[in-house]
């Protein structure tokens, strides 16, 4: 609602109207995480109001304005989640999550495929970072199937949609689905767009270059990723896109590490880290630290790995990036297991396993196996694991981060 709304011919001030309703206990004021006023209805009153609203001749127009407004919010905030203030932006998006859901549901009833694609593409990073991967995947599966039937999107619109869907599948560890969507996005970009659109699509495809199982993911990276990254890197450099250059250098880390050359992998990751520090890209810094830390674990530099991974953990925790917290916590659990501190490693693994279940961010499980590092998942492996596993399963994200900091 907004000031200047009208009911029939009588202009009303919306905020005065809401205050009047609150005084009559028909709505309840409640501040959101930013201290902004929100108003909640009792369910019976909400159901009655919704029934009256649906009977109004203005219902469709109001719903369209609502969808257009929140599409704008999603595109303004949701596409800027790699910045230093992403915690505030993630909270703002979470505050309006139900509004985004309502907008998406209404657009689906209207079969407004372009607007639906824009909204999904704008929200995917929010869903990925804030622990909504399951919900996101259901939405993308449903909408891609709808567009497959109706062919209502242009090439660039579908490429953007598939890029976002591939990102969701990748973070879930579903490499086969990620490849299918990234492959089609890259093909569309090559034929219809070129330039940075193609470079970004090739970069994405390098993380799932072949339609394969999780077990064969390592071989697919070593076998097929490097030409994709090198082509993307050349375009980024030609276009003067330094952020793209940093991302491509970071992507090379996987090829080197999985191919048995951790020294080259570390060099690429540290170059990407330096570039991200130069730009102040906290998101890129966090993931470059993740890669450097895993190389340090794999090469036995445990004290350095601890410091590197704790820096990454602090970045992701401060940002409210739940997928980042999940994977870096898993990193630190792997580190404990490699160092021979099994009790601590099991406790961390159990807490991380709980976070994976909650967020859907199963990517870490396959990346550790690919790097030849131990990973504990699914439950205790012996009687000695049962107590620390049970203890770890009681830790939520904040408690896990506190434990990792205190016990490092």
What does it look like?
The structure is a single chain. Among the domains are: 1-56, no CATH class; 281-408. Mean pLDDT is 88; it is low at 1-9. The protein has a two-stranded antiparallel ribbon. With 408 residues, the protein is mostly helical. The protein starts with 5 loop residues before the first strand and ends with a helix. The longest helix has 23 residues, at 217-239. α3 crosses α5 (97-110) and α5 (97-110) runs antiparallel to α6. 75% of the residues lie in helices and 3% in strands. The protein has helices spanning 14-23, 43-55, 59-77, 86-95, 97-110, 113-129, 133-150, 155-171, 175-192, 195-205, 217-239, 242-258, 262-279, 282-298, 302-319, 322-339, 342-359, 363-370, 383-392, 397-407; strands spanning 6-7, 10-11, 27-31, 37-41.
The SSE order reads EEHEEHHHHHHHHHHHHHHHHHHH
| Percentage of residues assigned to helices | over 70%
Q: Count the DSSP helices.
A: 20
Q: How confident is the prediction overall: mean pLDDT?
A: 88
Strand fraction band?
under 5%
Biggest β-sheet: strands ordered side by side in the sheet? 1-2
Ends: how far apart?
50 Å
Largest sheet, strands/sense/barrel: 2 strands, antiparallel
Which spans of ≥5 residues are poorly predicted at pLDDT below 50?
Answer: 1-9
Structural class: mainly alpha
Layout of helices and strands:
Blueprint: E1 6-7, E2 10-11, H1 14-23, E3 27-31, E4 37-41, H2 43-55, H3 59-77, H4 86-95, H5 97-110, H6 113-129, H7 133-150, H8 155-171, H9 175-192, H10 195-205, H11 217-239, H12 242-258, H13 262-279, H14 282-298, H15 302-319, H16 322-339, H17 342-359, H18 363-370, H19 383-392, H20 397-407
Antiparallel strand pairs: 1-2, 3-4
Helix pairs in contact: 3-5, 3-6, 5-6, 6-7, 6-8, 7-8, 8-9, 9-10, 10-11, 11-12, 12-13, 12-14, 13-14, 14-15, 14-16, 15-16, 15-20, 16-17, 16-18, 16-20, 17-19
């Amino acid at each position: 609602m907004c000031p200047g709304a009208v009911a029939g011919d009588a202009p009303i001030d919306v905020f005065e109207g809401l205050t009047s309703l609150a005084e009559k206990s028909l709505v309840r004021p409640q501040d959101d995480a930013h201290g902004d006023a929100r108003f909640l209805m009792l369910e019976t009153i909400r159901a009655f109001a919704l029934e009256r609203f649906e009977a109004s001749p203005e219902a469709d127009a109001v719903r369209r304005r609502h969808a257009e407004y929140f599409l704008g919010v999603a595109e303004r905030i949701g596409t800027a989640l790699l910045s230093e203030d992403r915690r505030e932006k993630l909270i703002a998006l979470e505050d309006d999550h139900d509004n985004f859901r309502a907008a998406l549901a209404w657009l689906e009833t209207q079969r407004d495929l372009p607007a639906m694609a824009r909204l999904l593409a704008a929200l995917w990073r929010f869903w990925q970072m804030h622990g909504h991967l399951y919900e996101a995947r259901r939405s993308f599966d449903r909408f891609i199937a709808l567009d497959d039937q109706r062919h209502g999107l242009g090439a660039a619109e579908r490429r953007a949609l598939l890029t976002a869907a591939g990102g969701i599948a990748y973070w879930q560890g579903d490499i086969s689905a990620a490849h299918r969507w990234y492959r089609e996005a890259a093909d569309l970009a090559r034929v219809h767009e070129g330039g940075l659109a193609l470079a970004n699509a090739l970069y994405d495809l390098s993380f799932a270059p072949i339609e394969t199982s999780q077990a064969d993911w390592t071989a697919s990276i070593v076998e097929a990723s490097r030409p994709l990254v090198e082509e993307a890197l050349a375009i980024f450099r030609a276009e003067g896109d330094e952020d793209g250059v940093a991302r491509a250098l970071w992507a090379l880390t996987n090829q080197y590490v999985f191919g048995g050359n951790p020294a080259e992998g570390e060099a690429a990751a540290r170059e990407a880290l330096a570039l991200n520090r130069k730009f102040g890209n906290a998101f890129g810094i966090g993931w470059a630290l993740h890669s450097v830390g895993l190389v340090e674990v794999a090469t036995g530099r445990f004290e350095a790995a601890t410091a590197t991974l704790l820096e990454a953990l602090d970045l992701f925790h401060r940002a409210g990036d739940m997928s980042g917290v999940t994977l870096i916590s898993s990193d630190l659990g792997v580190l404990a297991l490699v160092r021979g501190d099994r009790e601590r490693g099991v406790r961390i693994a159990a807490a991380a396993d709980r976070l994976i279940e909650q967020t859907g961010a199963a990517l870490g499980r396959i990346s550790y196996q690919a790097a030849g590092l131990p990973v504990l998942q699914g439950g205790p492996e012996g009687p000695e694991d049962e107590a620390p596993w049970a203890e770890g399963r009681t830790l939520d994200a904040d408690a896990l981060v506190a434990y990792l900091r205190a016990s490092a």
